């Protein structure tokens, strides 16, 4: 796996999200669990078991879900975060009040299944280009409310995070170029407003736009939906003109095409597929 850093945001950031998801599921109370156990409180034990192979992601988040309900719950990772699991493998063991285990089960499992699916597909993409210099990066095509966790999952799978939001960097896309009347005008207007050290990236669709982006000193040039032959020519043009400029390829990247794109010599390949096309990793909780 290529070098990438998956840093889970602090719970100061995450707790509000997790609490809102618990409230959505629990509503005015867990009718089943509370009716069954309110007069007979007891402790329980459970195991999380994988039902399909994949990369496990989100276990610290799952532990936090249960602890927000009851800080006496003991959540033990049996499988390490970011490692491959096989069907039948025990992923985690949980010990605590039975009502807490039952109330937190669905939110915790949903998050880990979703994030593990993303990490798993990301890793497949990353392995396709593991012997080439290009680095896979994600995009802002994420589920509202889940971006911070979905991008954590792509990093765990071996990708690099692209900008988290609109305030992370300047990316001049096709509609910005139309609004400004050209790449040069867009860069000129924006540069005077950009605080240090934000970079300026420009989306280009042809060699004329690449030359204009170079002329106006873009920091990163995206080659968007270019045929491979044009992309290779653009890479040579940029390297010859200014080797400090980073090159990103984007647009319709698939498992079948990602290696060919990497061979053109680009620095980064951005794709939304690991997030938008991933399948949840099937996990289940079984009471002991």
From TrEMBL:
Q: Which UniProt keywords apply?
A: Glycosyltransferase, Pyridine nucleotide biosynthesis, Transferase
Query: Has UniProt tagged this entry with the keyword Glycoprotein?
Result: no
Pathway terms, separated by semicolons: Cofactor biosynthesis; NAD(+) biosynthesis; nicotinate D-ribonucleotide from quinolinate: step 1/1
A Pfam short name: QRPTase_C
Among CDD domains, the record links this protein to: QPRTase
Catalytic reactions of this protein:
nicotinate beta-D-ribonucleotide + CO2 + diphosphate = quinolinate + 5-phospho-alpha-D-ribose 1-diphosphate + 2 H(+)
Give one GO molecular function term.
Answer: nicotinate-nucleotide diphosphorylase (carboxylating) activity
Q: Cite the Quinolinate phosphoribosyl transferase C-terminal domain residue spans from the record.
A: 118-286
**Tree of life domain:** Bacteria
The protein's matches in Gene3D superfamilies, at most eight in alphabetical order, are given as:
Aldolase class I, Quinolinate phosphoribosyl transferase, N-terminal domain
EC numbers: 2.4.2.19
Domain annotation Quinolinate phosphoribosyl transferase N-terminal: ranges: 30-116
Q: What does this protein do?
A: Involved in the catabolism of quinolinic acid (QA).
Show the NCBIfam families listed in the entry: nadC (TIGR00078)
Q: Which family does it belong to?
A: Belongs to the NadC/ModD family.
Q: What is this protein called?
A: nicotinate-nucleotide diphosphorylase (carboxylating)
Which species is this UniProt entry from? Dolichospermum heterosporum TAC447
Report the gene name. nadC
């Amino acid at each position: 796996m290529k070098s990438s850093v998956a840093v889970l945001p602090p719970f100061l950031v995450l707790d509000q999200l997790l609490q809102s998801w618990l409230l959505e599921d629990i509503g005015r109370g867990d009718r089943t669990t509370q009716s069954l156990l309110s007069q007979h409180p007891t402790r329980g034990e459970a195991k999380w078991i994988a039902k399909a192979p994949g990369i496990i992601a989100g276990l610290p988040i799952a532990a936090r879900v249960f602890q927000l309900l009851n800080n006496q719950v003991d959540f033990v990772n049996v499988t390490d975060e970011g490692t491959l699991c096989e069907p039948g493998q025990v992923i985690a063991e949980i010990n605590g009040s039975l009502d807490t285990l039952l109330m937190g089960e669905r939110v915790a499992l949903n998050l880990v299944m979703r994030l593990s699916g993303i990490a798993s597909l990301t890793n497949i993409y990353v392995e396709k280009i593991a012997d080439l210099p290009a680095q896979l990066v994600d995009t802002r095509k994420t589920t509202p409310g889940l971006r911070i966790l979905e991008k954590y999952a792509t990093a765990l799978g071996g990708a690099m995070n692209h900008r988290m939001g609109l305030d992370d960097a300047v990316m001049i896309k096709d509609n910005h170029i139309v609004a400004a009347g050209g790449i040069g005008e867009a860069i000129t207007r924006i540069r005077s407003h950009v605080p240090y050290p934000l970079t300026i990236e420009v989306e280009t669709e042809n060699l004329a736009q690449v030359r204009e982006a170079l002329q106006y000193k873009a920091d990163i040039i995206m080659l968007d939906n270019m045929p491979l032959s044009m992309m290779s020519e653009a890479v040579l043009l940029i390297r010859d003109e200014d080797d400090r400029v980073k090159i990103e390829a984007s647009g319709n990247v698939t498992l079948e095409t990602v290696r060919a794109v990497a061979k053109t010599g680009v620095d980064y390949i951005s794709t939304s597929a690991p997030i938008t096309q991933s399948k949840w990793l099937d996990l289940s909780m079984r009471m002991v």
